[in-house]
Amino acid sequence: MAAPGHCPFCSPSESRVVRSSEFGSILRDKHPVSPGHLLVVPHRHVGSFFDLDPLEQADLLNLIVAAQRVVRDHHEPDAVNVGLNDGPAAGQTIEHCHWHVIPRFAGDVDDPRGGVRWVVPEKAAYWESGV
Which pLDDT score is estimated for 33? Predict the structure, then answer.
């Protein structure tokens, strides 16, 4: 795991911080997928959601709800994706636990069905198998 001194989430610039709580913060994503893309990160430098204690987990889940409200109020999306890549095999590239709260808009992709299932493309379109 990267040392906290080299972690982009351990000391974010004030301009990225949307809101903070006792255990975490809502940050603006530096490389947004869509307008309003936010991150929810714990203050404690830990790689996995499952390594957080229950109080931290509960607080951060409340921040996810708060982030969705910020997105809704400022960007009026048609939907939202909430995603957590927990570990390198799941696609996590920054070894500091974080959720993506991504506003989605009708027509932003040709076919949004399957959502996060597209992390394994050959299994995403399960409806095509007649299920």
Answer: 94
Q: Percent of the chain having pLDDT more than 70?
A: 95
Q: What is the pLDDT, as a whole number, of residue 104?
A: 96
At 125 the three-state DSSP class reads: coil
Q: State the CB neighbour count (10 A cutoff) for residue 34.
A: 16
**Cα dihedral 34→78→49→125 (10° resolution):** -90
Residues annotated catalytic, as ranges: 98
CB 42 within 8 Å of CB 56: yes
The yes-or-no verdict on residue 110 having pLDDT over 80 is yes
- Spatial separation of the C-alpha atoms in residues 43 and 60, rounded to whole Å: 10
For residue 61, the 8-state DSSP code is H
Asked if residues 41 and 24 have their Cβ atoms less than 8 Å apart, the reply is yes
**Position of tokens 């927990």?**
86
Half-sphere exposure (CA, 13 Å, Cβ side) for 108? 16
7: Cβ–Cβ under 8 A, 6 or more apart, which residues? 45, 94, 95, 96
Q: Higher confidence at residue 15 or residue 127?
A: 15
- Looking at the DSSP assignment, which residues form a beta bridge with residue 25? 20, 41
